Amino acid sequence: MSLKRIVGRLVFLVLVIWAASTITFFIPRLSPRNPIRERFAELARIGGFSPQDLEAIVASYNTKFGLDKPLWQQYFDYVSSVARFDLGVSLNKYPKTVIDLIMESLPWTIVLLFVTTILSFVLGNLLGAIAAWPRAPGWLRSLATPFVLLMGVPPVLMGVLLLFFIGFRLKLLPLGSAYSTGMVPDWSSLSFILNVAKHQILPALSLILGSVGGWVLSMRGMGVTIQGEDYVLFAEHKGLSGFVIFKDYYLRNALLPQVTGLALALGTVVTSNIVVESLFGLPGLGRVLSQAIQANDFLVIYGIVLFITIAVATLMVVVELLYPLLDPRIRQE
Amino acid sequence: MGPILEVRDLQVSYYTDAGRATALAGASFSLNAGEKLGLVGESGSGKSTMALAMMRMIKPPGRIEAGQVIVDGVNLRELSEAQMLQARLNKIAYIPQGAMNSLNPVTRIEAQMADAIRAHDKQTTKKEIAARCRQALESVDLKPQVAKMYAHELSGGMKQRVCIAISILLKPKVIICDEPTSALDVVTQRQVMETIDRVKDQIGAAVILIGHDMGLMAQFVDKVAVMYAGRLMEVSTVREMFTDPKHPYAKALINSLPRLDNKGVFQGIPGLAPSLLRLPPGCPFNPRCSQAMDICRAVIPPSVTLEGGRTVACHLYADKV
Amino acid sequence: MTTVAISQPEVLRPGRFTLTLRYLRRNQSLVIGLLIVLGLAIFTIHGMLTIDPKRAYPLAVLPKQPPSPQHIFGTDFFGRDLYAAMVVGLWQTALIGIIAGALGITIGVVLGFTSAYFGGLVDSVIKGICQVLTPIPAFLIQVIIAGSIDKREVTIYTMAFIVVLLAWMHPTLVIRAQVLSMKERQFVSVAKLSGMGDIGIIFQEILPNLLPFIAAAFVGQVFASMFASFYLAVLGLGPLREPLLGNLIWAAQSQGAFFNGWWWWPITPAVAMVLILGSLALINMGLDEIANPRIRRTE
Fold first, then answer.
1. With an 8 Å Cβ cutoff, are B273 and C3 in contact?
2. Which domain does A145 fall in, by range?
3. Is residue B295 part of a domain?
């Protein structure tokens, strides 16, 4: 791969981050709401301090957050603080910064996201490839069908249904939250880790069951095309066993476009992950986001959105830059 | 010593929604070691079907209905699936049409040669495999470095040679080349044909060349077989075929070739090839044949052997046996 | 096989109706999808005509009642009758989907055509904007927009508008690609050579040929819009007063419906949503098959 391509992708990444931070800067400012005033007005109701005090506090906070400066200056400060990974502070949990909140919840999200994405990608592609492989036994090929039918059920709805059947009716698994109430988080204790794992099964299952079908469908379409390729036919003429042809000639080639597809699907995958987290009350980014939404904690909402956007765009570019390792044809260019 | 390849009464049908299409209707011929046969005919006349049937690679909805393919004394049609896997490349090799895309784009050439060897001989050491790959590449005039390369780094002619190198890895007795030179330029065509000639001599195999380039055939093969609508119309030596074709279709085919002495006069064959689903009764060529007789419209002509061993399937020669 | 039959015997041509029926029998996903949509439509219309919509709003009925002959889907914590809520919620969900879908596809068609047909700088700008915006998860931007509006002011229409703001890039790119390939086809060149103007070519030659494709893209867009608005509502960003299906699930979850044993509360809207999204996915698959003959052949 040429240097030009790498630089091109990096410039693209910077553009995406810039676009995302511009959107997160301007949209809230188009709205008539003043987050700081609302926040303190709320506090004023609870805490009972006077309207004069409120005005003073709002003014001092406006200065503190630079909201009294001209718009272009605010925009410039905002973009440069994004560039320094400074996403501001939480209004609700002050003085915690948005980055603090993200870092606390990120491990939960990352583990669930990686496990479910990899499992559904592997399972979906394997089942899809087999479904399109005429020499596979019929029962093996039909394994993919139920997943395709489940495609109409997005992860969140799958979550509600699983909660009902497995959690509520059968009482096999917990109904949500990260670990049983009364447990003290202690990552050195095995029983705590097992308890956490038990609470992760249903969310993970909702995410996997809802997304395997998509991979099955696209892989099956790809597989039909690859099977007709001359190199697969020649491999058969060479007297290779079905397994070798499946693995080295068919699957290898059919998987390449799927990897690009994975990069493109990341946004959707992360979105589902976040909504499912908030449904199950897991302490990941999803719950922080939905709590911030409840509490009108604007900077946290914008910060998390910006953070996820940058992470998704970066991952996409990373996948694209790593892609040549899989496809020698692009390595050459 | 008998022939190394004997095909007897090979029949293939395709079962389509519109009915059963006989793509190959009882073809028989034989070849000696070192002999080269050119298989010619219009597209859809059954050339590739014949090749695939010999490899036992006809896929549904197609089916081999009958016949024998005997290579080096072994009837391929009687082998089990597993034995047939072993026989491919080992006894009979096929170089596919469109070698351009016949190599796996994502693995190195050496991997594609190694898996072929390993599929037939699990005991081979890495060293032996490397040596055999080098040797095979050498015999098709390619440098050993090619083994480390990917398909997209090779030119069309080089890819074609790699395919030839792969097909001779296990020294098969019969090599089938399906249109080995289509999509190559004239100079490369020649080089590829010469390469095929040379490796054939090295391993002493019989070669079947499929194509419609009669000019190229004339230069490189010993025998020519003319196919029409799934039937072998005539099989004779290349000299006899070009100087004295017997079957009216073969005659028309030879006459349609452009010649230096009658430039500009282009003699096509009137009419169109029939659909395999709706063959006319009798000889399939009768609607287009200038010498058709009543019997041609009723009875399918059997194949007869004339003096010199050439065979013709035509009623004109039925009484001359 | 490229052999050509010389004379084709005249075959009795079945009528248009039989042909359609025969096609539908093969295209089962389209039929099943349409049947489910029809069922949902009948449910909603019948409900709208027979119930008092007020029962779909808080404090209308006795709260927390399990399904019974009186309340066939039960009632929720806030005193909404879930049957009435389903009727109103389905109607509202459909409304959001159709408004946002139609808007999105209109923007997509206009931009896609402009971009592909005129090319040059216009194309580069439109394509560039779409490409830079595509990696940004639209849903998250929608979260920001929805979060910046006062929740008390959010209506069904603002929801549709929020959803469409970031849902026009995909149709634009897809339609652009289709027009580009269409432009290379022979009949467009012929029209050009015969002196037809740009507008004429677009409306008389390209657009009619793209209609099945646009129809499929429209259903896809409705699906995406319902999906997006549903997700927003599940996060608590919907019009909180309305019995939107996502809102009901959010409300049920935040009141711990399963913990408290009110299973019917989240399950009813979930099943309804599964039916809607599932049927649209099936219809989309079926339409794809019509719009994209390549798939038809390989299946």
1. yes
2. 105-295
3. yes
Find which of C73, C130, C136 to mutate to test the A interface (most A CBs within 10 Å of its CB).
C136
Q: Is residue B237 in a domain?
A: no
Does C144 sit within 8 Å of A24, measured CB to CB? Answer: yes
Q: Residue C231: list chain A partners with CB under 8 A.
A: 156, 271, 275
Minimal-distance CA residue of chain B relative to A231: B102
Find out whether the peptide bond into B61 is cis, omega within 30 degrees of 0: yes
Is residue A62 a part of any domain in this protein?
Answer: no
Collapse the DSSP code of B6 into the 3-class scheme (helix H, G, I; strand E, B; otherwise coil) and give the result: strand
Tell me, yes or no, if A325 comes closer than 8 A to chain B by beta carbon.
no
Our count of domains for chain A comes to: 1
Q: How far is A27 from chain B (nearest CA, A)?
A: 46
Greatest CA separation for chain B: 67
Environment class of residue B105 by beta-carbon count within 10 Å: exposed (0-12), middle (13-18) or buried (19+)? middle
| ipTM value > 0.90 | no
Mutate to test the interface with C, among A150, A160, A217, A309 (most CBs of C within 10 A): A160
CB B129 within 8 A of CB A201: no
Judged by CB atoms within 8 Å, which residues 4-33 of C form the interface with B? 4-6
pLDDT tens across the length of chain A (333 residues): 578 888 888 888 888 888 888 888 887 777 666 666 776 776 666 666 666 777 777 777 777 666 677 778 888 888 888 778 777 777 777 778 888 889 999 999 999 999 999 999 999 999 999 988 888 888 888 888 888 878 778 888 888 888 888 888 787 888 777 777 777 777 788 888 888 888 888 999 999 998 898 899 889 888 888 888 889 989 999 989 889 999 999 999 999 889 888 888 888 888 889 889 988 888 889 888 888 887 777 788 888 888 888 888 888 888 888 888 888 877 654
Please judge whether A278 and C277 are an interchain contact, meaning their C-beta atoms are less than 8 angstroms apart.
no
DSSP C159-196: HHHHHHHTSSHHHHHHHHHHHHHHHTSHHHHHHHHTT-
**B29 and B88 belong to one structural domain:** yes
For residue B86, the enclosing domain spans 5-229
Q: Which fold has domain C74-259?
A: MetI-like fold (1.10.3720)
Tokens for A239, please give them: 């007297």
Residues 42-71 of A with CB under 8 A from C: none
Q: Which structure tokens are listed for C146?
A: 């929805």
DSSP label at residue A18: H
Closest CA to C264 of C40, C77, C87, C90: C77
Q: Which tokens belong to C65?
A: 């009642």
Same domain, B221 and B295: no
Residue A126 maps to a domain: yes
Q: Is the peptide bond before A95 cis (omega within 30 degrees of 0)?
A: yes
Report how many domains make up chain B.
2
DSSP state letter for B88: B
The token pair at B184 is: 């190559």
Question: If we measure between CA atoms, which residue out of B180, B174, B125 comes closest to residue B156?
Answer: B180
Question: What does pTM read for this prediction?
Answer: 0.80
Q: Which residue among B85, B90, B106 places its CB closest to the CB of A328?
A: B106
Same domain, B71 and B181: yes
